[in-house]
Structure formats: structure tokens, C-alpha cells
Design goal:
The protein has helices at 2-8, 13-25, 135-148, 190-202, 215-238, 258-278, 293-304, and strands at 32-33, 46-47, 54-60, 74-81, 96-102, 106-113, 119-120, 122-123, 155-156, 159-160, 163-165, 181-183, 205-206, 246-252, 289-292, 313-318, 323-329, 332-336. The protein is α+β, with helices and mostly antiparallel strands. The strands form six sheets. Strands 5, 6, 7, 10, 14 and 15 form a six-stranded mixed beta sheet that branches. A three-stranded antiparallel beta sheet has the order 12-11-13. Strand 5 (96-102) and strand 6 (106-113) form a beta hairpin. The chain starts with a helix and ends with a strand.
Length: 337
Amino acid sequence: IASLRRFLHGTTPHELRSRVADLATGAAVLWHRAGMIESSVVGDLFVGDVAAEAIGCDRVLQGNVAGFVPSNERGFVGLILLAAPRSVDLNPHARMEIGIDFGTTNTAVAFRLGDVEAEPAKFADRLRTPLEQSDRAKAAYRNLAANIFLPAREATIPFLSMVQDRRQHRHEDRHVALVSSQIRFHRTYEAPLREVQNALHSNDVRFDLKWSTATGDRELVGLFIGQIAMLGLAEAFGRGVGPESVTWRFSYPEAYGGQHLQDFKAVCARSVEQALGRAGEGGQAPAPQWERESLSAALYFARRMSVPMTESTVTLDIGGRTTDVSIWNAQRLAASS
């Protein structure tokens, strides 16, 4: 309803008739179908510019479901109305920094609220259900939703740079973070090792994306960063910080060449911009800030660990594929590689 009201608002009688006709013929689209792999677990997800107001329920008309059934071959059952999103009082003076270190094996995220010390990020449990049933039924729903979308418990860092690829490669669909892909938040390595074994056969769980230059993998990196950005914005809202008051910081390895670094910066900037758009923010997204991993490691030791750097000092950032080194002398950076 909100999307329809926005689409028809401020039109003249002639424009109103034209837009209604476009809706009837399908020439105008208010919500775009998200690109998800189609399976026998039949369902569609649509992405719009406002919060969802209802879940449409339908059923497959034939008896046995052997594969995906298009929506025009399913029978409409009804709607589940959703509660309006809870409003948040934003503090216009509050500021937050979100730092993202996208690693070969693990990814780390840090939050800094105002002038306090940065702290490891924690993504709160923010699953919501429209169902008011028994605790057992709600627990089953939450476990299902957590397996498909968000973690059912607080997610801490670092987490594996592993993502489930749910993209459906159709040009009319949109690939959206949190929908077309999902970060696999695991507390132990046993579960992801099983997923890696399965991924060798199914190829739907992807890892080692940091160094890939394939176009499809760059898009998947964007979806990975985009989900982090959306989760980070949710935490910012929860602390009363508006999206326009969030500063984004990314680290990158010195081994990234010119084109690889340019592509990585473009992907991250676009992911942040799309996350801000999903948060309802218009206009130009603030440009992310960048720092080399070698210098980021040195700054951690100098500021957090109070290492004076007055004598010759070497810092090592040992990653999954490369090691970034910085050499300091008398508090001056002598070399990095």
C-alpha cells in the first residue's frame, strides 16, 4: 500500500490513469523479484523501497512438487499482515564508525561510537516473526529463518569469509544482500568444514573470494560486504545513530594491484550505497575511507597496545594468503610491503 501510494502521489488525473494502466499491464513494477535459486521449497521474495507490510501466502495446486512452481501456477490463499517496524529516536549528534577487514579466511568488524575506544562488533539477534503460536513452533520458525537469513543468536567476530550463494542468474531479477546470499555465521569450525565438503559438489557455499578476479565472484563479494553493511546499520540504528552519521572504513592488502584495488573499492562503495538505500537514505552515500592492512596493524599496536614505536619495530599482519609488513623507526614508517 505504501509503495502504491508513493507511486501514485502527486499525479494529474491523466497521469493517474496512465500509471494505473501500467500497473495492470505489468509495465510498471513496484517490487522487484529477488534473484534466489528456485527449488522445491516454493516461494518468492520481492524487494521494494519501503518496509514489507504483509506476507502473501499461496499453495501449489498439483499434488506432488518435484521442482519450482511459478507463482502464476499457484493458488492464492491469503495474507499475513506484519506489524509496522518499530521507530527509533535518532540522536542528531551521535556518530559511529564501522571498520571492516575483509580477510581471506576470516572477516573482522569493529564499531566505534563517538570518541570511545573501538570494540569488536556484535550483531544482535534481530529476527522477528509474525506468528503467535507455541514456543516450540516459534523456535522452529526462528531456526528456519536463521538458516535462511539471519543468525538466531548474537553473532560475534571474527567470522569466516564464507558465503552461501543463492543467486538465480536471471536478468529480470535483482541480487540483494541478505536475500541472494547469506554469510554463514558459525561458532565452531566443525559445521563450516562440513559445508566446505558439500560445497565441493554443490558450489553453493563459496570461500576464498578475496583474491578472485572473476566478475561473478566480485558481485558475491559485494553481497557479502552489503550484508555486513546492513547489519552494521541495524546496530547503528539501535544505538540512535542515523545512516548519514556513520563513517565507513575498510582495510586492504598491499598485494592488491591497481585494477584489483580499484575493483575492490568500487564494490565496497557500491555495497555501502545500496545498504544506505535499503535503510531509506536518499542522496549520495559518504565515501568510505581506506587504509593498508600493514598500517592498520601498526596503528592497533601503537594506539590500543601503547607500543611506543620509538625504536626499530616490525609489525606483521599474517593473513590466509599474504602477510603485510610494516617497519618503523623513531615513530616513523620506514617501509611497508
